[in-house]
Amino acid sequence: MKLIIITEDFPPMAGGIAVFLSELSKGLAKRGNDVRVIVNEIPESNEYDKNQEYPIIRYSMPKRFSSVCIFWQVFRQVVRMKPDVLFLGHVMATRGLPVLLFKWVFRIPYAVLCHDGNLGIAGVSEVNRISGHKLLRHATLILANSKYTEQLLIEKGFPAEKIRILTPGVDTDFFIPSINQSAIQKIRLKYHADGVTFVINVGRLVPKKNQKNIVRAIGKLRDWGILVKCIIAGDGPENTNLVSNIDELNLDEHVSLIGPAGSEIVKKLFQAADIVILPSIIDNGAYESFGIVAIEGSACGKPIIVGSKGGQSDAVIPDVTGLIVDAEDENNIANAIAYLIRRKDIADQMGNAGRAHAVENFSWSKIAQRAATLLSEVM
């Protein structure tokens, strides 16, 4: 299959979409597909591009006429490559319209990957909103990153028969369980979690992540006589509020905010943890479209607690790899933690099942295989 991927999010740019598309490109290329990526130029991109196994075509992104620049680069590659499929890595509004033109003129099918039900264009101009909707209505294939995103797209009137699910993946060779008890003990001692249940949350400190109810739940557990040490790794605008919440409930010894953590630290935290908790909610329309961090925790062999709202619950098999709770009420979070503490046998089973689930369904090789199958069906 000859495939052109068009995006504005790609390494060395940081972010979940950039990682998703780079891993997808690499996985598709390794499966023998002819993959080319067209993306705007950013600092240090030359150094990144030369180490990839597939061509990356960069273009300068002027403030005006950016759509013309994209059109020209896509047109040149279409003429040279004669691709089987064009692939938009996200809804690009007016800058994605060239794929619609090439579908009409050259009869080349195109797919669009949607990372949220708002199409990633919430709050933009009316022209961009209309362009984004037109791109999806005429797409040969719409790929939703979760069942929740699929549901929202259908509710917006996009045809269900065009929509398929393609979730992000995780590096299941990096996120692995640890058998190094000395390393685990070192982490637990560092965060004063020796002899108590060690609970981890990783994510931006924003309202939809619902860390405030984690703090309240830990307070409930303390009042019930259940000792827990909770680490919250991340930064964001809710930091000050969370510090106040911890202080008001006298939870300084039970909850620690450690700031942003890189992948290596996150992996070590997961490996040392007893429970990973990610109780997201829907806040003023903001929600989790998928639970990548939940899959990373599962890949490390830990039971997961997630909120029932949004797409995060797609990452957990209820009562098999973790628990899904209504996280609007901190009592539900506290009860879920208490249950997993009380039933360590079930918690261990969930961790083992979660590892198997992550490897079987969310390794990047599996995601690339699924993408290749879906894209080949529209050729």
Describe the structure.
The strands form 2 sheets. The chain has a 7-stranded parallel sheet with strand order 3-2-1-4-5-6-7, sandwiched between helices. It is elongated, with a radius of gyration of 22 Å. The mean pLDDT is 93. Helix 6 links the parallel strand 6 and strand 7 (163-165). It starts with a strand and ends with a helix. Helix 3 (66-81) packs parallel to helix 4 and helix 7 (181-190) crosses helix 10 (263-272). It has 379 residues and is of the alpha/beta class. Helix content is 43%, strand content 16%. It has 2 domains: 2-169 and 363-376, Rossmann fold, CATH 3.40.50.2000; 181-362, Rossmann fold (3-Layer(aba) Sandwich), CATH 3.40.50.2000.
CATH overall fold name of the largest domain: Rossmann fold
Largest sheet: 7 strands, parallel
Classified by CATH, the class of the largest domain is Alpha Beta
CATH architecture of the largest domain: 3-Layer(aba) Sandwich
Separation, N- and C-terminal Cα atoms: 9 Å
Please name the defining characteristics of this protein.
six-stranded parallel sheet; 2 domains; alpha/beta; Rossmann fold; 379 residues; 14 helices
Strand-helix topology:
Blueprint: E1 2-7, H1 16-30, E2 34-40, H2 45-49, E3 56-59, H3 66-81, E4 85-88, H4 97-106, E5 110-114, H5 126-138, E6 141-144, H6 147-155, E7 163-165, H7 181-190, E8 197-202, H8 211-223, E9 228-233, H9 239-248, E10 255-259, H10 263-272, E11 275-278, H11 292-299, E12 304-307, E13 322-325, H12 330-342, H13 344-362, H14 364-376
Parallel strand pairs: 1-2, 1-4, 2-3, 4-5, 5-6, 6-7, 8-9, 8-11, 9-10, 11-12, 12-13
Helix pairs in contact: 1-14, 3-4, 7-10, 8-9, 8-12, 11-13, 12-13, 13-14
